[in-house]
Amino acid sequence: MINLNEVQSFAEGGNRKCYINPNNPKRCLKVLHKDLLENLQKNSAWYKRLGNNDDLDDNLRERKAYNQKAIRSPINSSIWDHLAMWYGMVETNLGSASETELITNEGEIAETLETYLFREGLTPEIKSALKNFENWVRTHLVLTKNIIPHNIVIKKENGSLILKIIDGLGSKSFIPLPKYSKFYARIYVERRIKLMWSRIHWDLSGRIGDWK
Ligand SMILES: Nc1ncnc2c1ncn2[C@@H]1O[C@H](COP(=O)(O)OP(=O)(O)OP(=O)(O)O)[C@@H](O)[C@H]1O
Ligand SMILES: [Mg+2]
């Protein structure tokens, strides 16, 4: 069991707190916010209907998502080009943690695409990184939820920027077809790419109105 009492979280999202693994500084541990699951279970109609936590617990969702066909049986090793590695679940004193590769640049934790875009805008470098990322999603048909800039971080490699998904893999559970059919997977990923761009433009134009 890993003790996180002495470890400061380095970031957090709406669902999880992120820590550097005290036993391995190259890995990130994500633990659900305290009481989150209990509150979600109480308030979720889905939970009552399905009776399982998989779609509420972001760590279980992630475990399932890393087990999707595109990642489990990849067409080639470039599947990892835009994904943080996933090492499974480990127990901590704050609950089960999802353990993933910590993305860094020269020892600093990588910044999110959102932070970059707010500071720099759509530079030629980031446009090119987004294009490579899009092509990768299309090639591998990786199923993601909506691709939001705060769920992507930027790795710098040999002078170029490489986008890495650190959260948001998986697909909406009520649309199972893309999991079983390449035809539907293509439609599904094209929709995610289109919405990724609409979210980026919405972020950059001051978040006015609805982004979808
Ligand atoms: N593997 C990683 N490497 C570097 N930074 C990371 C990594 N994983 C998470 N982060 C940072 O921690 C933040 C929160 O992590 P994450 O998105 O997994 O939490 P979450 O609670 O599931 O998010 P959401 O609010 O989108 O549900 C990210 O936005 C990112 O800044
Ligand atoms: Mg997130």
Task: Describe the 3D structure.
- The chain is globular.
- The protein is α+β, with helices and mostly antiparallel strands and 212 residues long.
- The strands form three sheets. Strands 1-2-3-5-4 form a five-stranded antiparallel β-sheet, covered by helices on one side. The chain has a two-stranded antiparallel ribbon with strand order 6-7. The chain has a two-stranded antiparallel ribbon with strand order 8-9.
- It has helices at residues 36-43, 45-50, 58-66, 69-72, 113-120, 124-140, 177-180, 182-204, and strands at 11-12, 16-20, 27-32, 86-92, 95-101, 104-105, 108-109, 152-157, 160-165.
- 37% of the residues lie in helices and 20% in strands.
- The protein has one domain.
- The longest helix has 23 residues, at 182-204.
- β8 (152-157) and β9 (160-165) form a beta hairpin.
- Bound molecules: adenosine-5'-triphosphate and magnesium ion (MG).
- Magnesium ion is lined by residues 13, 150-151, 167.
User: Low-confidence stretches at least 5 residues in length (pLDDT < 50)?
Assistant: none
- State Rg: 17 Å
Distance between the termini: 42 Å
Summarize the amount of helix as a percent range: 25-40%
Q: How much strand? A: 15-25%
What assembly state would you assign to the polypeptide chains in this entry?
Answer: single chain
| Ligands bound to this protein structure | adenosine-5'-triphosphate, magnesium ion
The coarse silhouette is globular
Helix and strand sequence: EEEHHHHEEEEHHEEHH
Mean pLDDT: 92
As laid out across the biggest beta sheet, the strand order is 1-2-3-5-4
Number of domains: 1
Summarize the main sheet.
5 strands, antiparallel
Number of helices: 8
Number of E strands? 9
Helix/strand/pairing class, anyone? Answer: alpha+beta
